[in-house]
Design goal:
The strands form 3 sheets. The protein has a two-stranded antiparallel sheet. It is built from 15 helices and 6 strands. Helix 10 runs antiparallel to helix 13 and helix 12 runs antiparallel to helix 14. By secondary structure, it is mainly alpha-helical. The radius of gyration is 44 Å and the shape is elongated.
Length: about 500
């Protein structure tokens, strides 16, 4: 009997069936080692997606990434450039902002013009409208011929002032002096001496021509006034004659009071002791264009604002004021309306004067390499300007007023009120702007002569002579000999020029 244990039965294992595939086609070496069944091959969609992804990655690596890097670099450069530009712009702007000195100078110029221009303008407008109201109902209405004769007398007196007062004052230093011409063109002594003799003669000729043109402007204005006055007298229009007479009075009052105030008050000065010589011819022409533009603009604004300041029912037909009943105003109503209009016109004229004189002072100091500053003072001197700059200012304002009235007569009844106002303002602005350079350079020439005469340089031992600076008449052997000290005259000529504000 066999007692050996029987081994456990082992179930037979089915044989493993391995399918052979080419390497790399469906099975990897790891798959072969593990004996795993390879996944089925990808379908068309999967293969297409895989190909598209591969192309996308290639496109990104080859094109998008370099383009993005280039754009990022360029964007950074642009950002840095804009940042540096903005910082530089801010730095420049901050550097060019008005300094405290410039701001105070502008404030001083504003205060000065409010007094030296605003007050004379207010006074002239009050006198103008009251004179018109009195003359329209008096002399011009009752005796047009007498009004025309009075007008002619005023015109002759104005022209005579130019010929026999202003012009001789410009020539007080003699024909050989160069003080007036240097002041006229804002030239220092060094620059003048550096010019050729032909150039100096040309500048002398131009200065004399400009001075004669001031007189010609006065003659032209008075000729227009007389023509309009004769027209008014012929048709029995007393209002026109009254307006001309009151305008002539207005121009004289304004010129004299303006120059008197300029000689009495000053609110600006130079930052240092640098010597200034005035505004040169090129900058003066630029100021003329600016002044003409400001005059035209303010004329339009004034024509629009002035009627709105009157009480309801009142009408302004420059310079006549009528009430709701279409009759001229009288008494307190007239006085109040005149004060309102005078204040309005003074405000607008002051705005022009502030901008103009600030620009003048700016160019004057900048040309000399310095700046203006606030400097309040009461000079209370240089009243001689009332004898030379006042007549020149009368010629300037008279020409503008005459052209304005002439334009009004030409367009009277032929155009609309708006077109008539435009033509009148345009004519005034053109006259003021075109004559600006001639008038203001003549102001500078007169100012230089006044300074040279009123403030002669101290005598030096070498220049001191027994004769005096001014002509003296001494009897000698029955004859009167005019003796002038040449050395003293040369000292006066070298004493410099002064800038005279308008």
């Amino acid at each position: 009997m066999d007692i050996r244990p029987t081994p456990p039965s082992i179930a037979p294992h089915p044989p493993t069936r391995l399918e052979l595939h080419p390497l790399g086609t469906g099975r990897t070496p790891a798959d072969l080692e593990r004996g795993q069944t390879p996944p089925p091959p990808p379908g068309f969609t999967a293969r297409a997606a895989q190909a598209a992804m591969s192309l996308g990655q290639t496109f990104h690596r080859s094109y998008l990434a370099p383009a993005y890097a280039t754009a990022s670099t360029a964007g950074g450069a642009v950002r840095d450039h804009l940042k540096s530009g903005a910082l530089q712009a801010w730095s420049d702007s901050a550097a060019n902002l008005p300094s405290g000195r410039t701001t105070l100078a502008a404030a001083g110029q504003t205060l000065q013009q409010m007094v030296t221009c605003g007050l004379p303008t207010y006074v002239r407008e009050v006198a103008f409208m009251h004179a018109y109201s009195a003359l329209a109902d008096g002399l011009a209405k009752k005796n047009p011929g007498g009004a025309l004769a009075l007008q002619a007398a005023i015109s002759l007196a104005s022209i005579a002032t130019q010929v026999y007062v202003r012009q001789p004052r410009l020539e007080r230093l003699g024909a050989e002096s160069n003080v007036a011409v240097r002041g006229h063109f804002a030239l220092s002594e060094a620059k003048w001496n550096g010019l050729s003799s032909d150039k100096q003669d040309a500048l002398r000729t131009q200065m004399k021509r400009d001075s004669r043109n001031v007189t010609r402007n006065q003659v032209a204005a008075e000729a227009i006034y007389l023509s309009l006055g004769a027209l008014g007298a012929a048709r029995g229009d007393g209002a026109l004659s009254a307006r001309i007479l009151s305008t002539q009075l207005r121009n004289v009052i304004y010129a004299v009071s303006r120059e008197a105030m300029q000689a009495s008050l000053s609110m600006t000065g130079k930052h240092d002791d640098t010597k200034t010589h005035g505004v040169n011819q090129d900058n003066m022409a630029l100021l003329g264009w600016a002044y003409g533009a400001m005059t035209l603009t303010m004329g339009f604004v004034q024509d629009s604002v002035s009627p709105q300041t009157l009480p309801p029912g009142q009408t302004l037909s420059s310079p006549a004021l009528t009430g709701a009943n279409h009759l001229p105003l009288r008494g307190d109503a007239l006085a109040k309306s005149i004060q309102t209009l005078a204040g309005t016109r003074a405000a607008f004229n002051t705005v022009i004067a502030i901008m103009d004189n600030h620009l003048q002072k700016h160019f004057d100091t900048r040309q000399a390499g310095t700046t203006q500053q606030f400097e309040a003072s009461l000079p209370l001197k240089d009243y001689g300007r009332m004898l030379d700059q006042s007549p020149a200012r009368v010629a300037w304002t008279s020409l503008a007023s005459a052209i304005n009235m002439a334009m009004g007569e030409v367009t009277r009844g032929n155009t609309s009120a708006a077109l008539g106002s435009f033509l009148g303002n345009a004519g005034t602005a053109a006259a003021m702007g075109l004559a600006y350079r001639t008038m203001n350079q003549t102001f500078q020439a007169h100012g230089s002569v006044r300074k040279a005469i009123d403030n002669p340089p101290p005598r030096t031992p070498s220049a001191a002579q027994p004769s005096t600076a001014r002509a003296s008449l001494e009897p000698q052997a029955g004859q009167v000999i005019n003796r002038r000290a040449n050395a003293t005259r040369m000292e006066i000529e070298n004493s410099g020029v002064v800038r005279e504000g308008q």
